[in-house]
């Protein structure tokens, strides 16, 4: 056993971990990244990036199928899944290799293997060949191990028929029927991909709405599109068991007091994620966790044990790559001795369904629960010339404004390019902007961004392209 010393050791090479390592290197800190499987983590390898590649491909195929409406005949649309998967893999490989290169270019080192904390400053790494090596962190250890899919009893993952999102982004063929256990973000994003590629998709969701926690007005737009395209939504349904015979699964559910069986080529279990911290040896060093197993941290991202820090999904919700990345930059500056803290007013989120959903700040329901008097501005994309031109008119932008001060409290979008449009709302909240700030800002015409301008004008009763009610 050898002993190697670094200023910082980052456990986990995902969005939070690799960003922390790069920033540490920029700040002159000698850094080691320990990664048990692959650089880039869930996001780059089988989460954010590959799923968005598949979504883009599915959207293109769908547009081609309906191009005749605008005088373009593309003929029969054929899906070569092998070629599609190869294209997706080139994107993943390019990004993951770039991440590793950036870490090294900034002076960092990478060690593949499983990490276990043996002290407040020591990490034992077990390599693929079984050999172990101990590394010492002089200033800090950063835990950035992310989260893993939740598995449920009665639905044993076999990686072929019964799958998680990890396998769903790499299916060798389009299933004739796909059953989703869970109608949350991951389930609906991937479900709508395969729906557009030709699958019959059935959603089994135990809550009373799809995409639980998101403004129901936004969700209804997505649900309408999904069902219009042949999707089936079973709300308030409980998944009981799954039996696989050959290449077909039989899913037993309870719905509206009755037992029902669903046949499927694939069953995607997408009921959420759990923190991935079980094998880090945290009990032995005294790091405290919450009831769900998340690592507890302060605004410096430090745990209760001096010198041990944590960032990203392993520290709690929301499970978002950009949250982890931001924390990665902050923790690097903290370790390097700079005055830094994790502090934000606005945390945006995006759901890449069809149409997209993006939100930031308070929702209408949350504002009412806090007894905050609000004004609401709402602008439909159906009134947008650009949306009409690109044939993406479903949805709207909803602006939540303080009724007394006109301060921007929230922005909620369902519609084309929502994930990009939300950035303006995020900046507005972060800068404590007022409705007038957005309403008086000149937006280019004809663009989707004009709808943001109009939504806030509508909140002020000054909209010109819709009636002010």
Describe the structure concisely.
This protein has 469 residues and is α/β, with parallel strands linked by helices. It folds into three domains: 209 residues, FAD/NAD(P)-binding domain, CATH 3.50.50.60; 110 residues, FAD/NAD(P)-binding domain; 111 residues, Enolase-like, domain 1 (2-Layer Sandwich).
Q: How do the strands and helices of this protein lay out in sequence?
A:
Blueprint (H helix, E strand, L loop, with lengths): L2 E9 L3 H12 L4 E5 L5 H5 L2 H18 L15 H25 L3 E4 L1 E4 L4 E5 L5 E12 L3 E3 L12 E2 L1 H4 L8 E5 L3 H12 L3 E6 L10 H13 L3 E4 L2 E8 L2 E8 L2 E7 L1 E4 L3 E3 L6 H4 L22 E3 L10 H15 L13 E3 L4 E6 L2 H6 L4 E7 L4 H5 L6 E7 L5 E8 L2 H13 L4 H5 L10 H10 L10
Parallel strand pairs: 1-2, 1-6, 2-3, 6-17, 8-15, 9-10, 9-15, 10-11
Antiparallel strand pairs: 4-5, 5-6, 7-16, 12-13, 13-14, 18-19, 19-22, 20-21, 21-22
Helix pairs in contact: 1-4, 1-9, 3-4, 3-6
**Strand-residue proportion:** 25-35%
> Are there runs of 5+ residues with pLDDT below 50, and where?
none
Main beta-sheet strand count, sense and barrel state:
7 strands, mixed
User: How many strands appear in the DSSP assignment?
Assistant: 22
Structural class: alpha/beta
Number of domains as seen in the coordinates = 3
